From TrEMBL:
<dbReference type="GO" id="GO:0009507">
    <property type="term" value="C:chloroplast"/>
</dbReference>
<dbReference type="InterPro" id="IPR000277">
    <property type="entry name" value="Cys/Met-Metab_PyrdxlP-dep_enz"/>
</dbReference>
<dbReference type="GO" id="GO:0030170">
    <property type="term" value="F:pyridoxal phosphate binding"/>
</dbReference>
<dbReference type="GO" id="GO:0019346">
    <property type="term" value="P:transsulfuration"/>
</dbReference>
<dbReference type="InterPro" id="IPR015422">
    <property type="entry name" value="PyrdxlP-dep_Trfase_small"/>
</dbReference>
<dbReference type="InterPro" id="IPR044639">
    <property type="entry name" value="CGS1/2"/>
</dbReference>
<dbReference type="Pfam" id="PF01053">
    <property type="entry name" value="Cys_Met_Meta_PP"/>
</dbReference>
<dbReference type="InterPro" id="IPR054542">
    <property type="entry name" value="Cys_met_metab_PP"/>
</dbReference>
<dbReference type="GO" id="GO:0003962">
    <property type="term" value="F:cystathionine gamma-synthase activity"/>
</dbReference>
<dbReference type="GO" id="GO:0009086">
    <property type="term" value="P:methionine biosynthetic process"/>
</dbReference>
<keyword id="KW-0028">Amino-acid biosynthesis</keyword>
<keyword id="KW-0663">Pyridoxal phosphate</keyword>
<dbReference type="InterPro" id="IPR015421">
    <property type="entry name" value="PyrdxlP-dep_Trfase_major"/>
</dbReference>
<protein>
    <recommendedName>
        <fullName>plant cystathionine gamma-synthase</fullName>
        <ecNumber>2.5.1.160</ecNumber>
    </recommendedName>
</protein>
<comment type="similarity">
    <text>Belongs to the trans-sulfuration enzymes family.</text>
</comment>
<dbReference type="InterPro" id="IPR015424">
    <property type="entry name" value="PyrdxlP-dep_Trfase"/>
</dbReference>
<keyword id="KW-0486">Methionine biosynthesis</keyword>
């Protein structure tokens, strides 16, 4: 985006530490007579001495400022203050902003002029204004050059997912002008236009703006770009929750009266939406076993299918779909494929590279990773994401920028957490399978898992969640869960803290035992999300709890 810039040359060795100092292209000289207000040319060099020599008071200088950090003086470096002689332009402007309008008395104005003249010898303020008046800044030093603003370069110098989770969307520049290492949180509900002409330019697509908080946010964009880099996607849309992402995606891509296919094992709320709400729009749903490729082909041949949507691995039995195979089959019939990869994480499985059109995550889980934020995201081709984004802008479900910051923060340790969780879960699954008080273990990393070979082909790790059935009934399983000391009894998974739940109670308690069994949910089923605690501690805790039954 073309923008105006403001740069300081403080000294041959000192660079302006405040990259957000920007200048208005059309300052409001309120003290000048109407019709005689000075105007800045499209590109003009303005120094502090020339401003004051031209008779512009400190009020006039203050009106040049478009945005100025409120803690400018407090954070200004000692060296920079020395170069300003402690009486320079920075303090005059900061005082004007902090204490209200500049004084009009001749004596004080003269003192300000003298102070500015003294500072001008050490510092020159350069204002560059472009025709559209938008802003980007640069910090120019004789020894080095730092340029703010967004850099569209790719992350080709990052060779691993671990580095991408740390730096993607940030290291090469972002749409927020700052020299801070961490991405700032931009808390705003709307974005202003300097003049009506700028608004018209925006409406006619000659000027970029989010316009309104529901349509975008600079902090949120950083989170989206980081996820896109990790998934290898053209675009990502992040929303307020995983369910928000799922429901908006389904309504955007499956037309009224259309047909879709899904699998038996999935998150219950997703199933409820497909069973109870999509039919109201005339959308019918075929449900198949995750491994039933023949059933998928039959549904594709019988119906005009718009979308095949499934989790892989699924919740809670961690079934795996052959993503490459089903993608080729669906594409041959003109159907899209969306994979919910929440249990896999973008580190363990690359659904888009395997052929899926879209990949969806509840970012609340492993991506956020700290049990402190709700979010959902969808990644894929720009064309499809734009269709979903258009409906999202209408329905809402916008992610708060503070939540976006927590997602960005969480992703920086994603690879470290997932490595630990992969390792712990696999070792615990093996220990549980060998334990006499455990009937069955569901984990794609075990040879006993029905899709173990598929998982080995399309996953580099098998995730941090293990489901298993203890040798007992509902009350026996409750006794085991209550005897655990480390994990929290809670819904959700994927965080630093281990979490355990009994699906029959946590997710299906409103159904009878017979109704629960229709979905394969037995009373003795346990879902265990392993956190980043030490493996030996977790193992000891699980073993002692099993001994109680």
């Amino acid at each position: 985006m073309a923008v105006s810039s403001c740069s300081f040359t403080l000294s041959p060795r000192v660079c302006n530490p405040y990259s957000s100092f920007e200048c208005r292209p059309d300052p409001d000289f309120s003290s000048a007579p109407i019709g005689d207000k000075p105007r800045l040319a499209s590109s003009r060099r303005v120094t502090a001495s020339s401003l004051y020599a031209g008779g512009i008071s400190s009020r006039g200088l203050s009106s040049l400022i478009f945005r100025f950090p409120p803690n400018f003086v407090r954070q200004l470096s000692i060296k920079a203050r020395r170069n300003f002689s402690n009486i320079g332009v920075a303090q005059i402007v900061a005082a004007s902003w902090s204490n209200g309008p500049a004084p009009d008395s001749p004596s004080l104005a003269a003192a300000a002029s003298a102070q500015a003249a003294a500072a001008a010898a050490a510092a020159a303020v350069t204002v560059t204004v472009t025709n559209d008046g938008a802003a980007v800044e640069s910090c120019i030093d004789n020894g080095s050059v730092q340029i703010g603003g967004s850099d569209n370069s790719t992350t080709t110098f990052l060779s691993s997912d671990g580095s991408i989770t740390v730096h993607a969307g940030e290291r090469l520049g972002r749409g927020i002008v700052t020299d801070a290492i961490t991405t700032p949180v931009v808390n705003t509900s709307a974005y202003f236009f300097k003049k009506t002409q700028e608004l018209i330019d925006f409406k006619e697509k000659r000027h970029h703006s989010f316009e309104y908080g529901r349509y975008g946010n600079p902090t949120t964009v950083v989170a989206e770009e980081k996820i896109s880099a990790l998934e290898g996607a053209e675009s990502t849309l992040i929303m307020a929750s995983g369910m928000c992402a799922s429901t908006v995606m389904l309504m955007a891509l499956v037309p009224a009266g259309g047909h879709m296919v899904t699998t038996t094992d999935c998150y219950r709320k997703t199933r409820m939406f497909m069973e109870n709400f999509l039919p109201k729009m005339g959308i019918s749903v075929t449900v198949i076993d995750p491994a039933d490729v023949d059933g998928l082909e039959a549904a594709l041949n019988k119906n005009k299918v718009s979308l095949f949507f499934t989790e892989s691995p699924t919740n809670p039995f961690l079934r795996c779909v052959d993503i490459e195979r089903v993608s080729k089959l669906c594409h041959s019939k003109g159907a899209l494929v969306c994979i919910d990869g929440t249990f896999a994480t973008p580190l363990n499985q690359k659904a888009l590279a395997l052929g899926a059109d879209l990949v969806l995550h509840s970012a609340t889980k492993f991506i956020g990773g700290h049990n402190d934020v709700l979010a959902g995201c969808i990644s894929g081709p720009e064309k499809l994401i734009t269709e979903i984004r258009t409906l999202h802008h209408i329905l809402g479900g916008t992610l708060n920028p503070n939540a976006a910051y927590l997602i960005i923060r969480g992703m920086k340790t994603l690879h470290l957490r997932v490595q630990q969780q992969n390792s712990t879960a696999l070792r615990m699954a093996e220990a549980l399978e060998a334990h006499p008080r455990v009937r069955r273990v569901y984990y794609p990393g075990l040879p006993s898992h029905p899709e173990h070979e598929i998982a080995k082909q399309q996953m580099t790790g098998f995730g941090g969640v293990v489901s298993f059935e203890v040798d007992g009934d509902l009350m026996t399983t409750i006794k085991f869960v209550d005897a655990l000391k480390i994990p929290y009894i809670a819904p959700s998974f994927g965080g630093c803290e281990s979490i355990v739940d009994q699906p029959a109670i946590m997710s299906y308690w409103d159904l009878s035992q017979a109704e629960r069994r229709k979905y394969g949910i037995e009373d003795n089923l346990v879902r265990f999300s392993f956190g980043v605690e030490d493996f030996e501690d977790l193992k000891a805790d699980v073993l002692q709890a099993l001994e109680t039954i």
